[in-house]
């Protein structure tokens, strides 16, 4: 058993009979009354984000988790087929398990979080930055680059993103998968 003193970002805990991941936390010691820990936790089954307050020193159950590297093979409806990079074992995950799935392309590597004791996948996430090719966007108007304006574009995975006016079809761009924003154009 652990206590709230062991909280850290990314820690997986058992709370109300379900697995949760601590996204952020803050120890608060008010001038009056007991100390407490204010947290934002994400349910690993449903993906729901919850703000919760724990009394300081309360006992918690820590879940042992493992991060394994998988390669995305193909999608079949809402089922996504993945292959373990180390032992070539294949698994199938539902679309809901994968964060930011609209940026996932065939052959891409993703991290799958497993419950170490039960061997069940809890969630899957893409790398924080990914490089995709632009398949459709309107051409930029020459001389209209002085301002920081954006236009809609479609990537090779079908995701829609806002890009600067100088980006054209066929350009490769780096995308922040968590914020879903354009970072920079990538040179070949």
Key features?
188 residues, OB fold (Dihydrolipoamide Acetyltransferase, E2P), SH3 type barrels, mainly beta, 5-stranded antiparallel sheet, flat, 3 domains, 6-stranded antiparallel sheet, 54% strand
**Helix count, per DSSP?**
0
Strand content: over 45%
User: What helical percentage do the residues reach?
Assistant: under 10%
Q: What is the highest CATH level, the class of the largest domain?
A: Mainly Beta
Largest sheet: 6 strands, antiparallel
Mean pLDDT: 88
Tell me the span between the first and last alpha carbons.
Answer: 51 Å
Spans of 5+ residues with little confidence (pLDDT < 50)?
none
Instruction: Specify Rg, calculated over alpha carbons.
Output: 21 Å
Description of the structure:
The protein is built from no helices and 16 strands. It starts with a strand and ends with a strand. The relative contact order is 0.13. The radius of gyration is 21 Å and the shape is flat. A six-stranded antiparallel sheet has the order 1-6-2-3-4-5, with no helix packed on it. A five-stranded antiparallel sheet has the order 9-8-7-10-11, with no helix packed on it. It has a five-stranded antiparallel sheet with strand order 14-13-12-15-16, with no helix packed on it. It has 188 residues and is mostly beta strands. The model has no long low-confidence stretch (mean pLDDT 88). The protein has three domains: 61 residues, Roll (SH3 type barrels); 61 residues, Beta Barrel (OB fold (Dihydrolipoamide Acetyltransferase, E2P)); 58 residues, OB fold (Dihydrolipoamide Acetyltransferase, E2P) (Beta Barrel).
């Amino acid at each position: 058993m652990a206590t709230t003193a062991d909280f850290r970002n990314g820690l997986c805990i058992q709370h109300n009979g379900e697995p949760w991941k601590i996204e952020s936390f803050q120890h608060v010691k008010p001038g009056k009354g007991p100390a407490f820990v204010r947290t934002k936790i994400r349910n690993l089954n449903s993906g729901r984000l919850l703000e919760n307050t724990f009394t300081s020193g309360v006992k918690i159950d820590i879940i042992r988790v493992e991060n394994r590297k998988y390669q995305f093979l193909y999608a079949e409806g809402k089922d996504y087929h993945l292959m373990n990079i180390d032992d070539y074992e294949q698994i199938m995950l539902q679309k809901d398990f994968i964060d930011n799935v609209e940026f996932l392309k065939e052959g891409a590597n993703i991290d799958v979080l497993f419950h170490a004791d039960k061997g069940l996948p809890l969630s899957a996430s893409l790398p924080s930055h990914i490089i995709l090719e632009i398949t459709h966007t309107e051409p930029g108007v020459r001389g209209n680059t002085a301002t920081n304006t954006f236009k809609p574009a479609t990537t090779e995975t079908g995701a829609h993103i806002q890009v600067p006016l100088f980006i054209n079809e066929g350009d490769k761009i780096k995308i922040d998968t968590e914020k879903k924003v354009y970072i920079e154009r990538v040179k070949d």
